[in-house]
Amino acid sequence: MKPEPRLVEVRRNVLKHNDLVARELRARFQREGIAVVSLVSSPGSGKTRFLESTLSRMNSRYRVAALVGDLATENDAVRLARSGAPVKQIVTGTVCHLDASMIRSSLEEWHLADVDYLFIENVGNLVCPASYDLGEDVRAVLMSVTEGEDKPLKYPAIFNGADVAVITKMDLCEAAEFDLESARANIQAVRPGLRVLCVSAKTGEGMEEWMEYIESLTPAQK
Amino acid sequence: MHELSIATSIVELAEEEAERRGVRVVAVHLTLGQLSGVVTEALAGSYDIATAGTLLEGSRLVITEAPVVVFCPACRERRTLPSVQLFQCPQCGTPSAEVIEGRELQVTALEVE
Ligand SMILES: Nc1nc2c(ncn2[C@@H]2O[C@H](COP(=O)(O)OP(=O)(O)OP(=O)(O)O)[C@@H](O)[C@H]2O)c(=O)[nH]1
Ligand SMILES: [Mg+2]
Ligand SMILES: [Zn+2]
C-alpha cells in the first residue's frame, strides 16, 4: 500500500540568493561611497535618452558610470558611452530582467572607489524587474506620455516598489492628449507619497529638478 | 516572462530539500504575494516544464495567493487591501505606502512520501 503523503514545513524564499547578493552589493556601494540609481520602464519609454542627458549633465562635475541591460544588441551602451562616461552593456539573452548577480559580475573589472554615481538601466519590462533587488539606493520607474495614464494601475507592483516616478517625453504631452493629473492620481493610488518628476530629455524640461533630486542622494545616502 | 526561471529555482530548492530529507516530493506549496511580480497562471504553466527530468517530475505546485497587507497610520492597525490598485485603508480611507505583507515568493511546505 502506498503511504499517505505528509506535509513538511519548509519556509524558504525562492529569491533568497538574489536578495543575498543584492544585500552584499548594497553594503559594498555604501562602503565605496557610491550612489546607485536604477531605471525601469516598459520598452521604449525613454530610459536611454533620459540617461544620456543625465550623464552628459553630470559628467563634468561627478564621476558617473552606467550599466545597461538589454535582451540583445549593444546599441544602448554605444549611445550612453557618447557622454564620455564608462558604460557597460549587459546582454541578457532570453532573460527579461537584470538580477543582482549580473550586476556583481559586470562590476568585476571596475574600480568602484573611482565612481560617485552608478546608473543601471534595466531591460524594458514593467513586470519581472519588480522581483529582483539590484542593491540600488533608488529605483526610478519611468513612464512616457504616449503610454496612457493608467500604466500604474496595470503594473502596481513595479510602481509600488519604486522610490521616484519620472514621466518622460513631456514635449509630446499635448500631441498624445496625456492627462497629467489622472496619471499623478494613478501613481498616488498605487504608491501614496511617491515623488513624481515630469521631464523631456529632448527639450531639457524638468532635468534640473531631476539633477537636484540625484544630487540630494549624496551625502545622505553616501 | 521570468516565470520559468522562478519555477526552476523552486524545483532546485525542493530537490535539495528532498535529497536532504531522503523523501519523494509529490507537491510543493508556494505562497505568492500580490506584489511579488510573479504571475500565478504563468508560473503554474511553467511548472511542468521546469520539473521535467528532475526529482520533482510529476509533482504538483500548489499556489496560495497572498493579499497585500498595509499598516494604516490612522487606525494604527494592519489592513488587508481589497485591491492592489488602491493603497488606502479599507476602513478609514487613509493612504498607506507601508507594506507589511504581499511581496512573498516563498516555498512554505512540501508534501512528501
Ligand atoms: N520626443 C521625445 N522623444 C523621446 C524622448 N525620450 C526618448 N524619446 C524617443 O523615444 C524612443 C525610445 O527611447 P529610448 O531612450 O531608446 O527608450 P528606452 O526606454 O531606453 O528603450 P529600451 O531600452 O528599448 O526599453 C527614441 O526614439 C527616443 O528618441 C523625449 O523626451 N521626447
Ligand atoms: Mg534603452
Ligand atoms: Zn485606517
Taking Cα atoms only, what radius of gyration of chain A do you get, to the nearest Å? 19 Å
User: How can the largest sheet of chain B be summarized?
Assistant: 3 strands, mixed
How many strands of chain A? 8
Q: How many helices of chain B does DSSP assign?
A: 2
Shape call of chain A? globular
CATH C-level label of the domain at 2-67 and 100-112 in chain B: Alpha Beta
> Distance N terminus to C terminus of chain B?
33 Å
CATH superfamily of chain A, by name, is P-loop containing nucleotide triphosphate hydrolases
- Class per helix and strand makeup of chain A: alpha/beta
What is the CATH level 1 assignment of chain A? Alpha Beta
Give the number of DSSP strands of chain B. 6
Question: What are the low-pLDDT stretches of chain A, counting only 5+ consecutive residues below 50?
Answer: none
Entry keywords:
heterodimer, A: alpha/beta, Rossmann fold, globular, B: 113 residues, alpha+beta, hypothetical protein PF0899 fold, 3-stranded mixed sheet, 3-stranded antiparallel sheet, 2 helices, 31% strand, binds guanosine-5'-triphosphate, binds magnesium ion, binds zinc ion
